[in-house]
Amino acid sequence: MPKLWDETMDAHRRAVQDAVLETTVALVAEHGLASVTMSQIAKEAGIGRATLYKYFPDVQSILIAWHERHVAAHLSRLAQAQDQAGGPVEQLEAVLRGYAHITHKRRQDGEIAAFVHRDQHVAQAQQQLHSRVRDVIAEAATAGAVRDDVSPGELADYCLHALSAAGGLPSEEAVHRLVNVTLSGLRPPR
């Protein structure tokens, strides 16, 4: 097959999957998980039911796929923020600010969140996040900018738990203050 055809087919598959994922999330948010059917999703996404079943076996698998993609995008943004920052201190700040911002903007759909957060991919994503924060803390500690009397793993726990509060804050300014307070807790003792 010519390369162009492969790219076109891949683009078509991505477009169909994108439509299905976004349509499903919108329908579940509007009607509730138990009320949404595969027929509804196919109709709203503008595809046939048979096509939908080629991609996904049920509504739950669509929501899991949507969330996996969503989480992967968040992790990618954090990696990119770290890569674009200067030294270890700037990288630490970029990762923590990025995480706080993601937490602040995260969807608060109760039913969808409750469903997708019990899946195994969430535990794997949390481990990846923890590892990234732990590693950037360790590098900043090696540079003398972060306390070394507490292990990087424990400090990562501290940061992630503290910054999870960003989800309930009313403004970006409040999120910024929370990150500053969290960073101050990482400074070496005098």
Provide structural commentary.
By secondary structure, the protein is an all-alpha fold. The chain has two domains: 1-57, Orthogonal Bundle (Arc Repressor Mutant, subunit A); 63-190, Tetracycline Repressor, domain 2, CATH 1.10.357. It has nine helices and no strands. α1 packs across α2 and α4 (59-84) packs antiparallel against α5 (88-105).
How would the blueprint of this fold be written?
Blueprint: H1 3-31, H2 38-45, H3 49-55, H4 59-84, H5 88-105, H6 110-116, H7 120-142, H8 152-163, H9 172-184
Identify the CATH homologous superfamily of the largest domain: Tetracycline Repressor, domain 2
Spans where pLDDT lies below 50 across 5 or more residues: none
Query: Quaternary status of these chains?
Result: single chain
Q: Over the alpha carbons, how many angstroms does the gyration radius reach?
A: 20 Å
Shape: elongated
CATH class of the largest domain: Mainly Alpha
Q: Please, how many helices?
A: 9
Name given to the CATH architecture of the largest domain: Orthogonal Bundle
Our count of domains comes out at: 2
How much of the residues is beta strand, in percent?
under 5%
CATH topology of the largest domain, by name, is Tetracycline Repressor, domain 2
Mean pLDDT: 91
Total beta-strand segments: 0
| Helical residue percent band | over 70%
Structural class: mainly alpha
Task: Report the major sheet.
Answer: none
> In sequence order, what are the helices and strands, one letter per element?
HHHHHHHHH
Distance between the termini: 66 Å
